[in-house]
Amino acid sequence: MVKKKSCVFISGAGTNLRALIRSSREYNYPININLVISDNKNALGLKIAKKYNIDYKIFDLKKNNQLEIALRVLKKKKISLICLAGYMKILSKKFIKRFNKRIINIHPSLLPKYKGLDTFKKVLINKEKLTGCSVHFVSEKLDSGKIILQKKIYVEDNDDINSLKTKVQSKEYTAYSEAIVKLYSNISS
Ligand code: GRF
Fold it and tell me: Which end of the chain is more exposed for a tag (fewer CB within 10 A), N or C?
């Protein structure tokens, strides 16, 4: 099986990146991670890229020349899927159009609920009993593209922002990996 080439965009810790790298190293997994792009040169996730010998680049895609350079790099590396994993910048319409339906994201809520930031706080304020994470296509509207897969967790009375974050993030790792399998099984069927 020929694995598709992918790039993961990060800004921070990169724990989803690590989970995706581990999945991608499984024999039958549909993608390889060939490149990591970060907007933040101090992102801890870059250490993960280094550890696994994955090429990484720092780009500020808001700067037009860097956007063009990034697009060239992605093309040269034949990247056919972009996975946003804790990438904190909003991608331009131009970029999203160029990668039409080939950019996916993971968000720590059951979309369409709680788009944007501070999801755990909002879940607690609204006394939700259930929350979770969503893997979705990236469209021009924030956190609004078609959902590929969601996973749920129960919110307990004693949960706080930190405990929710831990529970949701541990679901994210399997959710992201499974969503990519689902994506490619849909494409090939
Ligand atoms: C994740 O919770 C993801 O849902 C959100 O940003 C966080 C990134 O965490 N978009 P990490 O950098 O993968 O550890």
Answer: C
**The two three-digit tokens of residue 17, written as one number:** 């990146």
Q: What per-residue confidence (pLDDT) applies to 18?
A: 98
- Identify the pLDDT of residue 3: 97
User: What is the rounded distance in angstroms from the CA atom of residue 11 to the CA atom of residue 113?
Assistant: 23
- Probe residue for ligand 1, chosen from 56, 88, 91, 106 as the CB with the greatest number of ligand atoms within 8 Å: 106
Looking at this protein, which amino acid is placed at residue 9? F
| Strand 103-107 to 130-137 pairing | antiparallel
pLDDT digits (tens, 9 = 90+) for 166-175: 999 999 999 9
Q: Whose CA is nearest to atom 10 of ligand 1?
A: 86
| Six token digits for residue 3 | 């694995």
Q: Which of 4, 107, 136, 151 is catalytic?
A: 107
